[in-house]
Every structure is written in C-alpha cells, then in structure tokens.
Amino acid sequence: MSKRTLPPTASIATPGEGARLIAPSASRNVDAICTLLKQVAPRSGKALEIASGTGQHVATFAPCFPDLLWQPTDIDPERLASIDSYAQGIDTILPARHLDATRPGWAVEFPDLSLVTLANLLHLISEREAEVLITQAAKTLCPGGRLVLYGPFMRSGVLTSDGDIRFHEALAVQDPEIGYKNDQDVIETIQSTGLQVIDVIDMPANNLALIAERPAA
Ligand SMILES: C[S@@+](CC[C@H](N)C(=O)[O-])C[C@H]1O[C@@H](n2cnc3c(N)ncnc32)[C@H](O)[C@@H]1O
Fold first, then answer.
1. Could you list the residue range(s) of the whole structural domain that residue 98 is in?
2. Which atom of ligand 1 is nearest to the CA of 1?
3. I need a labelling partner for 39 at 20 to 30 A (CA). Which of 33, 47, 95, 119 fits?
4. Stronger pLDDT, 5 or 54, i.e. the higher one
5. Minimal CA–CA distance to 58: which of 29, 98, 87?
6. Per-residue pLDDT tens for 191-202?
7. Ligand 1 neighbourhood includes 136 CB (under 6 angstroms)
8. Ligand 1 pocket residue status of 122, Cβ below 6 Å
9. Does residue 7 fall inside a structural domain?
C-alpha cells in the first residue's frame, strides 16, 4: 500500500535546519525509548528501525550502542532525507532506505538482524497491515534477536485515557481501517510468528512497549 492519509495530529514534523525535520513527539519520547532500549536491546549485530520518521530517534540511539549497525527506514522520501541529515557523522548508521513495512515479503531484504524497533506506526495502519509488518519483522530476526514495538495501544480492548479516545476517533474518522490496536491481539500476532513476548512495559504518556525475542535455535 502507499502511505495513508492521516489526520493532521497523527504525524507532525516541522522544518528544521537543512533537510532536518523536527517531530515534537519524537523530541518528547526519545529519551524514554532510548532508556528502554538500553535495558532490552542486544548490544551487537544489525538493527533495523522501521518507520524512522525524522531520524531523531536513530541519531540518539546509535551512539548508545557502539557495536550495533543501524539501518533506518521510512516510506516517505522527505523523512529519508531528514534521517540522513541527522545521521551525518555517526558511522554506525547506514544511509536511510525506503521501506513500506506493510508490503508482504520485505523481510528477505534485511536478514539476520539482532534488533528491530518500531515506534508509533501500528495505530496508523490497518489490522491486516500490522499483521504483515509483525510477520515480516519476525522473519528478519536471528536466534536471540529482539523486536521492540512502542506506541499507543488499547488495553484488553479498552481505550484508557481521554486523549487516547480522541486520537483513536480522529484516526477512524479519517480512515476506518486504522486506529489503535489491542495489546492482546498484537501479542497473539507476535506469538503466532514464533517469537516469545518477554516483556510488556508501561511507558510515559500512556504508551506501551512490547518486547519479543526469537528463541535461540
Ligand atoms: C508517527 S510517525 C513515527 C515516526 C517515528 N518512529 C517516531 O516515533 O517519531 C509515523 C512514520 O511512519 C512512516 N510510515 C507511514 N506508513 C508507513 C509504512 N507503510 N511503512 C513504513 N513507514 C511508514 C511515516 O512516514 C512516518 O515517518
């Protein structure tokens, strides 16, 4: 699929210096996600970031993991240019690549990964697309490799704050196929790929992080 049309509040990024974009949400959550990764991410190997956005995340994460080689990706050319701009001078970040993570089969392009991260995309795609994304992400992982999914979720089918109710409704009005995913459904999808869900962590601003691992062979 191509990139979906979203409500204006769903993926805000404003121009910064040169090609750089600034996403206020990334500025707010980058430290919390980085702290999380320091607790759960493998220390070496190859890392894929799906839907990297502006590049603020990967440019913060990479220096904290000197033995991980990061591959940022996104569907949007403007964001790819922004990622490359943020990555300048950080030699553990590869040039950003175009990836539509809802396209079946993309996993073959990213083999033997020790880490896949995704922040703030599942609620912007359909249930079916989320299943494809998770299935493909799982296929990329080597034994012991980890998947980290971060973002807003329903908890056991319930939207748990007024802000989440408003945001989910704005998404569904714009596109009835998208909106918050249920944490238990996502966990079941992850488990159906053969990964083990090893932790579910409450994050600031009512977000969740789901951590999964490919069992050692
Ligand atoms: C809300 S932003 C999140 C960006 C970043 N992960 C963060 O948390 O700041 C959603 C990102 O997903 C990208 N995106 C949208 N549809 C996509 C798809 N099908 N595959 C990959 N990336 C996609 C958008 O271009 C955008 O950069």
1. 21-213
2. 19
3. 95
4. 54
5. 87
6. 999 999 999 999
7. no
8. no
9. no
C-alpha of residue 52 to centroid of ligand 1, in Å? 6
In this structure, the chain runs to a length of 217
**Inside any domain, residue 1:** no
Q: Which of 121, 124, 133 to mutate to test the pocket of ligand 1 (most atoms within 8 A of CB)?
A: 121
In a domain, 8, yes or no: no
Q: What is the mean pLDDT of the chain?
A: 96
From the CA atom positions of the chain, what is the Rg in Å?
Answer: 16
95 CA from centroid of ligand 1 (Å):
17
Q: What CATH number corresponds to the domain at position 134?
A: 3.40.50.150
Q: Which of 87, 206, 213 is nearest to 155 (CA)?
A: 206
pTM of the model: 0.96
| Each residue's pLDDT tens digit, 156-175 | 999 999 999 999 999 999 99
Cβ-based neighbours of 129, under 8 Å, separated by 6 or more: 1, 102
Q: Is 15 part of any domain?
A: no
Spacing, Cα 54 to ligand 1 middle (Å): 9
Those residues with Cβ within 8 angstroms of residue 186's Cβ, 6 or more apart along the chain or in another chain: 122, 130, 134, 149, 153, 210
Please, where are the H alpha helices in 104-174? 127-140, 162-174
